[in-house]
Write a structure and sequence with these properties.
Elements: H1 18-32, E1 40-44, H2 46-57, E2 66-70, H3 92-98, E3 102-107, H4 116-125, E4 128-132, H5 148-157
Parallel strand pairs: 1-2, 2-3, 3-4
Helix pairs in contact: 1-2
Length: about 160
């Protein structure tokens, strides 16, 4: 579709730490240059909060084109392993000032992430909300290998 795609493997996924993940995202994005309106993120699960925390680190005037947040959430779901991502609240206004186009994609039967988080992204970020049926947590282990709604959302916000 004409996109140059980077799919970074995040460090220490068995013991994820916010600073390590955000710094890794900074490193990967730094390879391609400075954040700009032609950049779009697609994140899944814990990757979504990583994107939001990354956006908080951008300087005034740095803007991204958009983000598609798949099975994302805005606060700890009760897992001690991810506490570091929620040590401070999301600065919603700062995030919105760095990125205007958000799409939240959730499944109506996700065993980990309740639909309310899609509503939170809609309220706090002005995100478009897409609710898929029967996609669970959008993982290959659950039989989900393609999510056309994600590609369609990315194509829509990148126009």
């Amino acid at each position: 579709k004409g996109f140059k795609v980077f799919a970074p493997l995040m460090p220490d996924t068995l013991n994820p730490q916010r600073n390590a993940w955000v710094n890794h995202l900074k490193h990967v994005t730094g390879i391609v240059g400075s954040p700009n309106p032609d950049w779009y993120f697609v994140g899944h699960s814990l990757g979504c909060i990583t994107i939001l925390k990354y956006l908080e680190t951008l300087e005034e005037g740095q803007k991204m084109g958009g983000a598609v947040l798949v099975a994302g959430f805005s606060d700890n779901l009760g897992y001690n392993e991810i506490n570091s991502f929620f040590e401070d609240p999301i600065n919603w206004s700062k995030v919105k000032s760095r990125c205007k186009n958000f799409v939240a994609v959730h499944s109506d039967d996700d065993p980990f992430v309740p639909l309310k988080y899609g509503e939170i992204f809609k309220e706090k970020l002005g995100a478009s909300l897409i609710i898929e049926h029967g996609m669970k947590h959008f993982t290959e282990e659950e039989g989900v290998t393609k999510v056309p709604a994600v590609l369609n959302a990315l194509l829509r916000i990148s126009k």
